[in-house]
Amino acid sequence: MRPILILTKNLLVEQKLQEKLHHLDYEVFCSVNMIKQLQNSLNRVPLIEYYKLIIFSETLNNQEVCELVNMLQHRNSQLIRKSIVEPTTKEKEEMSQLGINTWIYNDMSLENLREQLTVSYSAYKQIEHVSGAISYDKEDMLEMILEFKSILTKMERKTFECLVESEEELVSREELCYYLWKSEPNNSHLTQMSGLVKRLKSKLVAAGFPDGMVETVWGYGYRLAPNLKQIFS
Considering the domain 2-131, what is its CATH architecture? Predict the structure, then answer.
């Protein structure tokens, strides 16, 4: 799937767009907190590079968008402005001057949305080809990793280590249960396991990582997003 980030002040406003993007096979992360993290310090969210397309919601005013664009201008991500209605020619020119060459609006048809995003995604691939693989600042990444590990309990740390160390993409509930308690699953352990994974997801976001880095595979178990597993391995 193709990752896409929506920066917004209101998650509910983005539900309709999220549904369309999922229909078009995009992996969507909608965030309010990441705006604050960017405004405080861009170095606190180096994994923003994970998102190839970034959409600025209509809930952000032009000044806020301008500030965020300046923070992101040295990144490879393609920047997209979302508005309530189709922007005028003048508004498109103003967006272009900011470095935003793609726009979408609330009532845009699925077909037009698909084509607009395809153009942006293709532009990203061209830039990526020229600039080479994305590299993260090692000091920033080390700081994020240390901060994340420092807020884990002993059992949360063991759960995360199991996901990192596993040679398989997926870790079954049975495997994780035996790793944690050296016993077969029972109702008590399964309930505790669900709580441990839920807290891991929350603490990853609190440490500056995007949401969705730990995935629940219903009926089987859990897995780390490939880029996260590579960082911690």
Answer: 3-Layer(aba) Sandwich (3.40)
Encode pLDDT of 19-36 as tens digits: 999 899 888 888 888 887
Spans of all domains in the chain: 2-131, 138-232
DSSP alpha helices (H): ranges in the chain?
A: 15-23, 33-40, 62-72, 89-98, 110-131, 138-150, 154-165, 173-181, 187-206, 226-232
Cα separation values, 223 from 155, 159, 206, 226, Å: 17, 11, 19, 9
What whole-number distance in Å separates Cα of residue 193 and Cα of residue 187?
10
Say yes or no to pLDDT of 52 above 90.
no
pTM given for the model: 0.57
* From the candidate CATH numbers 1.10.10.10, 2.40.128.110, 3.40.50.360, 3.40.630.10, the one assigned to the domain spanning 138-232: 1.10.10.10
Q: Does residue 40 carry a pLDDT above 80?
A: no
- The stretch 161-175 carries a mean pLDDT of 87
DSSP secondary structure letter of residue 11: G
